[in-house]
Amino acid sequence: MTGKPTVSVLGTGIMGAAMARNLCRAGLEVRVWNRTREKAEPLAADGARVTGTPAEAVEGADVVLTMLYDGATALETMRDAAPALRPGMVWAQCTTAGIDLLTDLAAFAREYGLVFYDAPVLGTRQPAEAGQLTVLAAGPEEGRAAVTPVFDAVGAKTVWTGDDGAAGSASRLKLVANSWVLAATAAAGEVLALSQALGVDPQGFFDLIEGGPLDMGYLRAKAALVLDGKLSPPSFAVATAVKDARLIVAAGEHGGVRLDVAAAAAERLARAAAQGHADEDMAAAYFASFEEKSGEGA
């Protein structure tokens, strides 16, 4: 490969679309595909070529970037792309796939001679749109000349965790980070719900902890989404958070540890999704504290 890489982005949801736009802004040639083509069409205005199939999207690409719902979807999509894959092509797998599915993804890469990078990203809608994600990456030195411009375009920094993507060091770190994010989100919702139940003004709690070790910008940000009724469009949707929470619980079980908070967060999020909040921001886990889709005006 000489010059800037040609990049295929498979999956143009909240994160994938933002990443594709930033790749276009960086001057890279970008092809995009999404199962629902209508979600990919707006990217044509940014300079991306919208394609009808995964195989069409990856034809002639130097780097394939997958940003799909889960590992199973990523594997299915890459199988659909297989006729156009070629040995030596770089695959940056950015989906939060968990540990078990990553083994299958890496095996697929070996089968087709792809240079595999385990590369989940840390961040939500706003940093994705601003190109300020943190890329957690593991993969061989010899392929980094192709993948580094891609990571630089979508992220503010890249944290290299190893030189073997199949070992899953980046995905493991992502699960640890997400376990904290989900725990903090669940706690924020319960603080608001308990405040409502006890007739306490939430602002009194925020004033109480202001500037101290218990204060947290993330707590205030997630609480504000509930209090201000701004759960849509989501930065990180409830449905996706349910998936990640379950991956975290499974990873803990795989490692022989019990993660009670993660398990409870998964249950709360699933309950909120069942109440009709699946496509709202994960702060909507707040509603799981109530029997119905209610609780507005906390």
Question: How would you describe this structure to a colleague?
Answer:
By secondary structure, the chain is an alpha/beta fold. It has twelve helices and nine strands. It has helices at residues 14-25, 37-40, 54-58, 71-81, 100-111, 125-129, 144-154, 169-198, 202-209, 217-227, 238-254, 260-277; strands spanning 6-10, 29-33, 49-50, 63-66, 90-93, 115-118, 121-122, 133-138, 155-162. The longest helix is centred in the middle third of the chain and has 30 residues, at 169-198. The model has no long low-confidence stretch (mean pLDDT 95).
What topology emerges from the helices and strands here?
Layout: E1 6-10, H1 14-25, E2 29-33, H2 37-40, E3 49-50, H3 54-58, E4 63-66, H4 71-81, E5 90-93, H5 100-111, E6 115-118, E7 121-122, H6 125-129, E8 133-138, H7 144-154, E9 155-162, H8 169-198, H9 202-209, H10 217-227, H11 238-254, H12 260-277
Parallel strand pairs: 1-2, 1-4, 2-3, 4-5, 5-6, 8-9
Antiparallel strand pairs: 7-8
Main traits of this protein?
globular, single chain, six-stranded parallel sheet, 298 residues, 9 strands
In summary, what is this structure?
The chain has helices at residues 14-25, 37-40, 54-58, 71-81, 100-111, 125-129, 144-154, 169-198, 202-209, 217-227, 238-254, 260-277, and strands spanning 6-10, 29-33, 49-50, 63-66, 90-93, 115-118, 121-122, 133-138, 155-162. With 298 residues, it is an alpha/beta fold.
